[in-house]
Amino acid sequence: MTVAYGLRDVYCGEINDGHVGAVVSVCGWVARIRDHGEHLVFVDLRDHTGQVQCVVEKDLNIRPEFVLKMTGTVSNRPNENFNEKLATGRLELKDCKIEVLNSSEPLPFPLNSKVGVDESLRLKYRFLDIRSDRMQKNLRLRHKIVQTIRNSMSSLDFLEVDTPLLWMPTPEGAREFLVPSRLQKGHFYSLPQSPQIAKQLLMVAGIDRYFQIAKCLRDEDLRADRQFEFTQLDLEASFVTQNEIIQIVTSVIRELFMNIFGHEPEPIETITWEEAMSLYGTDKPDLRVPLRIRDLTQYFKDTKVNALKGVSVQALLLKKAASISRAKLDEFVAIAKRNGGKGLLWIRVTEDQNGLNLDSPISKFLEDSDKSALINSLNPEVGDLILIVSDEKLLSCQILHAVKSFAISQALVDILVPEDQYRFIWVTDFPMFESVDEQGNAVAAHHPFTMPNEEDLDLLLSEPLKVRSSAYDLVLNGWELGSGSVRIHQRDIQERVFTALGMSLDEAYDRFGFMLNAFRFGAPPHAGFGLGLDRLVAIFANEPSIREVIAFPKSQSGIDLMTSSPTAVDKKILKELGIISGEKAGGGTKVKDGETLKSEVSN
Ligand code: ASP
């Protein structure tokens, strides 16, 4: 394939020994100018592939970030001028003729500075920030990941189909963005939280296997792993089981891994939600952390110690952590209470002349049977710390997870979480509902189109919290990378789920009638998945936030600092859209004409 180089013959970073002696043109930005005092000046010219040193006559009126075309002879540098850090570091372009294609004002921040630049400044000048090595690398990695996914999906017979952005509410648990309709005044489109409903309808439509690199929009509080708009690999297939979807996604991940890292990922284990909660206290376990919760309930059935009595007794053994200060241990207890528990018991494992000694606020109440139960079940060594929570099982495990995360984040434990390790895990059999609200209505854990486990169907209305679902998550290094489920494809089951969620049938048909009606016409069994692309790229790029792998992200307070959006809108437009009728804004917040959210920009 011929590369269209445009104004240049070769990219800056691609100049190599094969070019020596040739006269070539390169184009790019001035990265650095070094004046060696003689007649010559050294200009490092940069494009997205790297840099090359160009030697030019002195007294040029150029500055960093000027856009130049340099034409010169590729030559070997004298040995003493080698720069082994650069791919082109043994070569240079000599006797260069310069063409200034554009000038540049001094940049508001240095592009590749080792000391961090304030993120809001980077976001305000994102078009400059993206020139940096870091952002170039991240966006190119993103491209490679997307391309690999597209190829994998295509080779698995998935068809890429676009679905609308102007859509209707898709119940996925977040607030939605609304777009007013000019033609249907007083009515709004919703921006889709995901293409969930559309892809299910594509299955009814006989598409068989669909995928899309889809924009999803959710009006949620922003965090390191959340943006209003994010991108998903969204997929759905007909006549498949949960295991087949898991296999399909696993094979995409495998191919991605081979392409990006050149080797296979570690085999991906599958555990149920219940196992995940029992072993890790979270449904997003980070397998790089070698800590498992231990269930000690059976050992303390007859104990007289209140702190060890309870419906369940869960423990965590922290190796070499006995020296954690009393103040920090008190913080552990506070975390337990903040999370709704009664407290937390800590026991330092020390040594005296009789052997192991258990040092704790309840030491004097511990009987020999309690001590041997602790020692035999956990096998602690001198210098270890035991943490015990005896509340209801799920709560106890969640508390231990919270304390463990705190201890790791504060470097209180001797655990180094390797940054270059990628540990995936599938979590299956999620509960169908996560809670029951004050009105007695169940709250969906995934989304309401998830198929309940067949054996639990009868419990839907009577004991919703006992209903398990055919939902599964893919977790990577403690981040939820994606989730999916087998879907309901029978109208009666879908109606029952809506009822469990407290929706009357009238309301259900009002909101989702088109979908329930579609199920009348031979909807095939189907299942699917949505994989968070931004998170995947961020983890593969070793970045702490998805903002680093998105070209134009919003700030933490939801503002595009570059364009200062969202912006206020002229009253005339609001009237035209039917949002206000007279002089005053109709409901909601009043906006002043032409005012941008300048005060928030500085946040
Ligand atoms: N729509 C779901 C989500 O965005 C993914 C799925 O169930 O396919 O989380």
What do you see in this structure?
Among the domains are: 12-102, Beta Barrel (OB fold (Dihydrolipoamide Acetyltransferase, E2P)), CATH 2.40.50; 290-409, 2-Layer Sandwich (Gyrase A, domain 2). Helices cover 25% and strands 23% of the residues. The chain has helices spanning 119-124, 126-129, 133-155, 196-204, 242-261, 273-280, 326-338, 368-378, 393-409, 491-500, 505-518, 533-540, 571-576, 598-601; strands at residues 23-35, 40-47, 50-57, 67-76, 91-102, 159-160, 178-180, 188-190, 209-217, 229-238, 269-272, 294-295, 314-318, 345-352, 355-359, 385-389, 424-428, 433-436, 442-444, 471-476, 479-486, 526-532. Strands 6-9-10-22-21-20-17-11 form an eight-stranded mixed sheet, with helices on both faces. A five-stranded antiparallel sheet has the order 3-2-1-4-5, with no helix packed on it. The chain has a five-stranded antiparallel sheet with strand order 12-13-16-14-15. α3 crosses α5 (242-261), α6 crosses α9 (393-409) and α10 (491-500) runs antiparallel to α11. The protein is globular, with a radius of gyration of 30 Å. The two termini are 48 Å apart. 33% of the residues are buried.
Provide a brief overview of the structure.
Helix content is 25%, strand content 23%.
What tags apply to this protein structure?
single chain; 603 residues; alpha+beta; OB fold (Dihydrolipoamide Acetyltransferase, E2P); Gyrase A, domain 2; five-stranded antiparallel sheet; 14 helices; 23% strand; globular; disordered C terminus; binds aspartic acid
